[in-house]
Amino acid sequence: MPDAGEATHPLNLAGDSWYAPPANHMLRISVDIGGTRSRVALIDDRRGIVGRRALPTPRADHANRFDELYAALLEGLAGEIAALRCPQPHIGESHSAPIGVALAGIVDPSQGTVVRSVNLPYCEGRPLAKDLALHRAAEVRLFTDIQAATWAEFIACSRPAVFGHLRLGTGVGYAEIRNGRFASLARAPGRHLDPLRLGDAWDRPCGCGSRGCLEAYVSRSALRAQAADNRIDARMIESALSESVGSLRRRLGDSALLVYGGGLIEEYPAIHEHLRGLCALPVGREFAELRAAQCGDDAGLLGAASLACAGSAPWASPPSDLPSASTGSTGGGGSAR
Description:
Oligomer: single chain
CATH superfamily of the largest domain: ATPase, nucleotide binding domain
CATH architecture of the largest domain: 2-Layer Sandwich
Order of helices and strands: EEEEHEEEEHEHEEEHHEHHEH
Structural class: alpha/beta
Mean pLDDT: 81
Number of domains: 2
Low-confidence stretches: 1-21, 88-92, 317-334
Distance between the termini: 29 Å
CATH class of the largest domain: Alpha Beta
Number of strands: 14
Shape: globular
Helix content: 25-40%
């Protein structure tokens, strides 16, 4: 069966939608849990999203309601999965295939638990994969949003030997894949990944507790804070992007590929144009090629479905995304959407 994550041109169906794929196609379920919106999709074995639904993610408005909010999230997701069942009798759903779930935060994929999520604190310490499996009577596998999105983009780019994915959204995420496996990346416990730290001249405090992280300059949360203070500095934003992208291209090296994506790029045309300019800028042979990502907002859904059905998990040791480990994932718990 073709890999459900191998989507070079995923269908862009808006809202609650459905199309009927050809007969005998099997479908897989994928879930993408964001800080404000969660989505559920059916993905066919021809690499397309054939149906989708969306629902608001419960907001963490009061710590005393965490149990209630967590239960509401599980019930909402289970309800949307049930509502997305294929109405065509000649199309089957693969009940043996695990459900892939991508979540904005830090997770332990081996245990299916949420370690940290700034936007979803009521999920922290919870066995989300096990609990959702009980609601749906199916195996569930949990990943971070940047892991899932990176895997989808990696497949869409024909699986290069060395691959990096920078994703700009509410937070900033980055992951690397080398020889088909996620690479371990250094970081201090609970902090952003070292590759997402700028040089010594950059010292703005970051929400992760460090200083000089790219997220402190170029993220939805950073730009909103700057706008509130009427101090958006376009030149500084471009400079931070140029330094970070240049560093990542040098890190990956010749014959590698670095792609960039995320909702922030679509929301801020100036950032999009600056990155396009960096793609066209001549660089030395020791630099990785730079391109825009292909899968768009569906990357998390496509990648989670593919990773959930992978024969063996493509993780470098250690096989987790814990704050104390050196892993390739989003840092600081921000959403890279």
